[in-house]
Structure of Methylenetetrahydrofolate reductase (NAD(P)H):
Amino acid sequence: MVNQVQQVDGCWQSSKGDSSGASNSSGDSSKESSRCSTPVVDSDRSDRLREKIKKRIDSGDQWFSLEFFPPRTTSGAVNLISRFDRMGSGGPLFVDITWHPAGDPGSDKETSSMMIASTAVNYCGLESVLHLTCCNQNKEKITGYLAKAKHLGLKNIMALRG
């Protein structure tokens, strides 16, 4: 079985095929897992994460998340992002991105926590929770980080004291 991604009418769609080349284009895969198979907005992605968690708990379904610590190098970031789709195919409900103080977490660097989380959401279709360490930060800096996260499309923030 091979996963293939192709652009159709300006939207990215995934299809599954066997080694013979036959394919089975299926939008159902995004409903079976907890993430979208394509980085386009659908009704499931508009649900709040807490609603998704509540639905899973109420229905008795099991779920899990994955947590990533942003790499220190650009090549490490490329390596991590290139594996998001494969790791996401396991169906995590969301991914956590740790706040990496040594890596300038709120910057536009490809190794920053914000950029890793933004890439997970906007390009890989993974629901993301950005950790935000508030210890030793002033109100203006935190407000700036939150505004930037909103601008990047990050809806889920875990504010940590330390």
Summary: Confidence is low (pLDDT under 50) at residues 1-43. The beta strands are 2-8, 11-17, 23-25, 65-68, 94-97, 128-133, 157-160. The longest strand covers residues 2-8.
